[in-house]
Each structure stands twice: as structure tokens, then as C-alpha cells.
């Protein structure tokens, strides 16, 4: 694989991570939650073969408690991602 091809693959991985962050942001917004520090971990995007990680960041106690209630709501019969 040439260096140009590696850069293209790396850019694709980073773009996938950016898309995942935006999808997560919108999904959380749909249940009334905002994680202001939600982002891609910049260190995981470095190097020739990045493996981007989504960093949910920091949140206050109220947001943490709201996040912990989301799985409970799904178990109570709300339709999830797949149905």
C-alpha cells in the first residue's frame, strides 16, 4: 500500500469516527442529553494507521444520572435502535 493510499484509509477512519460522534450526539439529543465534551480522541488519530476512539468526555452528575437511566428506559419496553 502506498503512502497516499494509507493516508486515504486513515482519513476514512477519522471520517467514520466523526460520523459516529455526530450520530451519538444526535441520539443523545433525542433523549434530552448533551455531552459538551463529546469528541474524537486526538491521540488515537495520530500515526500512520490511526485507530480513532470516541471520547464521551466529562459531564456533570445530573447528566451522568440521566445517562444511567437510558438503558433502564429501553428495558421498560421502549423501542430501541433495532426495533
Number of helices: 2
- DSSP E strands, number: 2
The ordered H/E elements are HEEH
Report how far the terminal alpha carbons are from each other: 41 Å
Strand content: under 5%
Radius of gyration: 16 Å
What is the molecular shape?
elongated
Helix/sheet category: mainly alpha
Approximate helicity band: 40-55%
Q: Give the biggest sheet.
A: 2 strands, antiparallel
How much is the average pLDDT? 84
Given as residue ranges, the uncertain stretches (5+ residues, pLDDT < 50) are none
How are the strands of the biggest sheet laid out side by side?
A: 1-2
SSE arrangement:
Elements: H1 3-30, E1 39-40, E2 54-55, H2 61-75
Antiparallel strand pairs: 1-2
Descriptive keywords:
two-stranded antiparallel ribbon; about 80 residues; single chain; mainly alpha
Give a concise summary.
The chain is mainly alpha-helical.
Describe what you observe in this structure:
- This protein has 83 residues and is mostly helical.
- It has a domain at 3-58.
- It contains two helices and two strands.
- A two-stranded antiparallel sheet has the order 1-2.
- The N and C termini lie far apart (41 Å).
- The model has no long low-confidence stretch (mean pLDDT 84).
Amino acid at each position: 500500500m502506498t503512502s497516499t493510499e494509507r493516508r486515504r484509509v486513515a482519513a476514512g477512519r477519522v471520517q467514520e469516527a466523526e460520523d459516529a460522534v455526530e450520530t451519538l450526539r444526535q441520539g443523545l439529543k433525542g433523549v434530552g442529553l448533551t455531552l459538551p465534551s463529546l469528541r474524537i480522541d486526538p491521540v488515537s488519530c495520530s500515526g500512520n494507521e490511526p485507530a480513532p476512539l470516541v471520547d464521551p468526555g466529562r459531564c456533570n452528575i445530573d447528566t451522568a444520572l440521566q445517562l444511567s437511566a437510558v438503558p433502564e428506559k429501553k428495558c421498560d419496553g421502549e423501542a430501541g435502535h433495532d426495533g
